[in-house]
Amino acid sequence: MLKKRSLPSRTLVATACGLALPLHAWAQSSVTASNGGQLNAIEVSADWLGSGLQNSVQGFAGARTVVKREAIAETGASTIDGVMRFIPGVQVTNNSSSGGSAISLNIGVRGLEGRYSPRTTVLLDGIPMAVAPYGQPQLSFAPLSLGNIESIDVVRGGGAVRYGPQSVGGIINFRTRDIPNQPVAGDAAVRYNDFSEGGHNTQYSAFVGGQVNQDLGVALLYSGQDGSGWRQHSDEKTDDVALKFRYALSSSSEVYGKFSYYEARTDVPGGLTSAMYAADPFQSQRTRDQWSGRRTGIDLGYINTISDTQEFELRTYYSDSFRQSVLANGFDATATSLSSQPRNYGVFGIEPRYTQRFFAGSFTHDVSVGMRYLRERADETVINTTLRTGRSSVSRASDNSTDAYAYYIDDQIAVGNWRVTPGLRFEDVETGRVNKLNGYSESVKDSQPLPSLNVAYLLNSQFTLFGNYTTSYGSIQHLQLNLNPRGNPLEAETAETVEAGVRWNRGDGTSAEATVFDMRFDNQLELFGSGATAYWVNRGKTHHQGVETRATYAFDKAGLLSGLSAYAALTYTKATLREGAFAGNDLPFYSRWTDALGLRYALGTWDFELSSTHQSSQYADDANTQAENAAGSLGVIPGFRLWKVQARWKMPSRPGVELAFGVNNLTDERYFTRTTDTNAGKLVGAPRTVFMQGTVKF
Questions:
Q1: Taking 70 as the threshold, does the pLDDT of residue 64 lie above it?
Q2: Span 185-214, average pLDDT
């Protein structure tokens, strides 16, 4: 029977599979995998990152991690990046210097570059989050706040047919908080973060919603931040508000939607030279640099369970975004000009999808056919102002456009204990750019077929074997068109990924998972140089391979260690260049080894967590330069381990009142990353941070 979305949809049932947090919620989550022949082993809904596959994480044919709200809270993280550090196969790049720590999203998957997450399809409620998913997928501006998130769903492989582009690094779907089932419910929270170096900030969140009547549910979400980070010149302010609704038209159909507004402003401390960093790693010598952005969005959907074997869904969305950076051409003492770069984006999308279930002997088929039209329009201007005279001139002005059609078909087949899903996605993209200063225009058309095959075998309710083959695609972006040297045309990026693994979940908080993967990336694009002389080239082929493992264990509730749970996760990744002058070298800005460890102890109204994350060393360039240069932009980036401790207390006399306090980077480890962009140099990571949080639920 086709599954109708509930109002509101229930949270995804996350097994401990793939999870690597020191959390009771992670350890205690369980999933009942269906045995052979049970139709509920396959969800029909194509939106399996939203309400589909709610009971099928265990049977999903790929490496997948779902982190729910309770588990997010138990990490003690203040930003999305902080949560993602605990997920196997995911690496987090520290603040990139051209956006605040709470504004940009810097996530790399399986050795791919993490700066602004350019090669991962990032979704918010199933809708692309980037200001221009094809033309500018980089998330220097990530319009979401941790306080508004219900769950984080990370698919590291096996999802490219239904989602794209830029899905070579997997798919990440952030789902906003659910509309409550009761007449009125909500909560409010305040968190205070105090850095041992630098300043402090305060984070706020509020949520209220419920069922207006039998058919209509609404919810209002707000999350914000105000204050400074751990470096000089690092003030940040964000406001994130959304209004959600669901309305039942009948017993089998409903409309749903969300109106959202996000605004952010941040100072940009920038990179430091080696000498500056040695003198004071928390200083800033770029006090003129700033960044700001805002986004208004609306998304609407209609779903109709036509019959027990038919389902139709239509989604449409529009977003209007603005972002601007103001960057000096050097440090305070040497800067001679400011570069202001205002950019405007408008994105419209529409996605219809139809699913039909039919039976052929012992086989059950769920065939989904869908398409997406995405229209992007953008303009950008670069205004240079001479500091000495105050005179300004426009050095770049352009109009950018993308029209993209994507079509897909897949067939989820159930026979006995086997779950087989062949699929095909076809991308048809036209991207153009017009130079408004001289009238010169460039355009490119590209089409790519993207086949995939996912296979899972359910040994029993506890064990799942899985494997998949997927292809993925990254289109040529607006800026790449503009910067492409004539006579050196660029080619779109493509990748092939093979993945195999085993997942075990005993159902009592004890679980384990291991995944091996091999990814071959062709025509990978790379930016050389900076400023007016920068240009893009196809780097060529890269090879990514590795192993992702994790395990959780909950001690016997009747034993002496009742209330204690533990986890461990270990990932090995080798990502290398396969051709060119540096063939065989490691790709920059990834670690071969990452791990996460943790313990959690529940005692009455108290919860205690101790956790640690580690990443090994990295390189900052294709040449794998060992020695540090004077600018601080090149050289080995040492590995580091961070420790975190947290305690939470639920007030017995006041149900719904919860207090939490803890310390991030307990040992005050001094670590850093590098950047090679306009603000090149060394960037220190967050020092010891004490936090306190109070939450009231009603």
A1: yes
A2: 95
